[in-house]
């Protein structure tokens, strides 16, 4: 394979040294160099900034200006190519100054050996490339962090702006509903009940968005206390049963345990699992909720008799915004955030959440939670993590 020649810009005011370097460079095997010579340092600086080349070889002694000053000037003007400084006899003490000014290496012209020069050229070019790659990566990371921060700020602002009118809408809808409840107007009561349900759905979506930005910004808050696990499960079943027309939610087992954790957040997970069971198993009429415990943990299982989830996608459904093809195709609404948020909550509460499912055989979503985490602060004290 034909090697691409390496173009070297040589800034050297001494013609003899130019000839010497040319001789050394042309003698080299396994490497091809294209040497471009400039004897005037100021023109050299211009050519550094405008001419195509891979590396600059620069003499330390350049008459009115020395090589180190030239390096400083070039670097301050954004010159990004590797620079190797050529020093004369007894000038090795300027090496540190040269590196500080922005040189990549230096070599003495005295007793110049072709293999050393070749290695220095090659290494300087490769090191510079790696340095540029690293800088590019860092600046890309910074840009993406800044973008993420902007995105989170934007979502927070949208959430806030949406929440205010929605809260007022909800209050008005509730007043209307109460009024129709009293007047016994069935038709209007049904309409306002539906209105209330839709407002609640919207509020949940907004809340999910807010949670995602909190998770990503590391700001998801937990308010922990001891609570009765079975009582929470019963409460939520009672809440969801009336709105789930098709399904009967059956309860099996008890944990008989008091758990340390954020009751609201854990309730949010249970609600999500129960709502999903009603949403994604529309052609069945049963959901079974099982609770159990051992000395260290409580376990909750929500079993539905829907289409199930293919094995290879059982992990993916916990990713943010991920929805199965079937869910996307049908009119079942959702953003694919509920399981992601649930996963984060259970993980932060030091538990584990997973799904057991066979296609066509329904799904069982499960989580376990430690009863009393070792580092739990005193009972009853609210802790924001
Ligand atoms: P959403 O319900 O808003 O889409 P989730 O994060 O709760 O978001 O669920 C992600 C996806 O996992 C759903 O879109 C659906 O495809 C799938 N899924 C969740 N629960 C079930 C279930 N019980 N049965 C079948 N698929 C489910």
TrEMBL record:
What InterPro entries does the annotation carry?
A: CheY-like_superfamily, HATPase_C_sf, HATPase_dom, His_kinase_dom, HisK_dim/P_dom, HisK_dim/P_sf, Sig_transdc_His_kin-like_C, Sig_transdc_resp-reg_receiver
**Which residue ranges does the record assign to the Histidine kinase domain?**
157-373
| Official protein name in the record | histidine kinase
Q: What is its EC number?
A: 2.7.13.3
User: Pfam families recorded for this chain?
Assistant: HATPase_c, HisKA, Response_reg
* Keyword Coiled coil in annotation: no
The chemistry this enzyme catalyses reads: ATP + protein L-histidine = ADP + protein N-phospho-L-histidine
Q: Does the keyword Oxidoreductase apply?
A: no
Question: What PANTHER family does this protein's entry cite?
Answer: HYBRID SIGNAL TRANSDUCTION HISTIDINE KINASE C, TWO-COMPONENT HISTIDINE KINASE
Residue span(s) of domain Response regulatory? 7-124
- The modified positions for 4-aspartylphosphate read 59
PROSITE patterns listed in its UniProt record: HIS_KIN, RESPONSE_REGULATORY
Tell me which SUPFAM superfamilies the record gives. ATPase domain of HSP90 chaperone/DNA topoisomerase II/histidine kinase, CheY-like, Homodimeric domain of signal transducing histidine kinase
Q: Which organism is it from?
A: Dictyobacter halimunensis
* Keywords per UniProt: Kinase, Phosphoprotein, Transferase, Two-component regulatory system
């Amino acid at each position: 394979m034909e090697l691409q020649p390496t173009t070297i810009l040589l800034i050297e005011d001494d013609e003899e040294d130019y000839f010497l370097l040319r001789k050394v460079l042309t003698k080299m095997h396994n490497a091809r160099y294209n040497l471009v010579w400039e004897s005037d340092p100021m023109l050299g600086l211009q050519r550094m900034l405008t001419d195509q080349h891979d590396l600059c070889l620069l003499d330390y002694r350049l008459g009115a200006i020395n090589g180190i000053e030239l390096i400083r000037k070039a670097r301050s003007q954004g010159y990004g190519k590797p620079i190797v400084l050529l020093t004369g006899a007894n000038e090795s003490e300027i090496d540190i100054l040269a590196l500080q000014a922005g040189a990549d290496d230096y070599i003495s012209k005295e007793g110049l050996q072709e293999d050393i020069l070749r290695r220095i050229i090659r290494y300087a070019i490769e090191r510079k490339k790696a340095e540029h790659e690293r800088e590019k990566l860092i600046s890309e990371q910074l840009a993406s962090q800044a973008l993420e921060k902007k995105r989170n700020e934007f979502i927070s602002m949208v959430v806030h702006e949406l929440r205010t009118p929605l809260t007022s809408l909800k209050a008005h809808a509730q007043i209307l509903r109460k009024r129709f409840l009293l007047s016994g107007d069935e038709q209007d009561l049904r309409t306002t009940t539906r209105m209330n349900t839709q407002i609640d759905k919207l509020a949940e979506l907004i809340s999910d968005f807010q949670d995602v930005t909190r998770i990503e910004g590391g700001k998801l808050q937990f308010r922990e206390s001891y609570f009765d696990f079975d009582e929470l499960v019963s409460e939520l079943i009672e809440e969801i049963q009336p709105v789930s027309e098709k399904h009967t939610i059956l309860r099996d087992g008890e944990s008989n345990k008091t758990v340390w954790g954020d009751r609201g957040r854990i309730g949010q997970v249970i609600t999500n699992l129960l709502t999903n069971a009603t949403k994604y198993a529309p052609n069945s009429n049963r959901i079974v909720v099982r609770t159990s415990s051992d000395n260290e943990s409580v376990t909750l299982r929500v079993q539905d008799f829907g289409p199930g989830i293919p094995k290879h996608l059982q992990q993916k459904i916990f990713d943010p915004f991920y929805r199965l093809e079937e869910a996307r195709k049908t009119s079942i609404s959702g953003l694919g955030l509920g399981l992601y948020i649930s996963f984060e909550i259970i993980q932060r509460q030091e538990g584990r959440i997973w799904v057991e499912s066979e296609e066509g055989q329904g799904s069982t979503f499960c989580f376990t939670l430690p009863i009393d985490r070792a580092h739990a602060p005193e009972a009853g004290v609210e802790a924001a993590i």
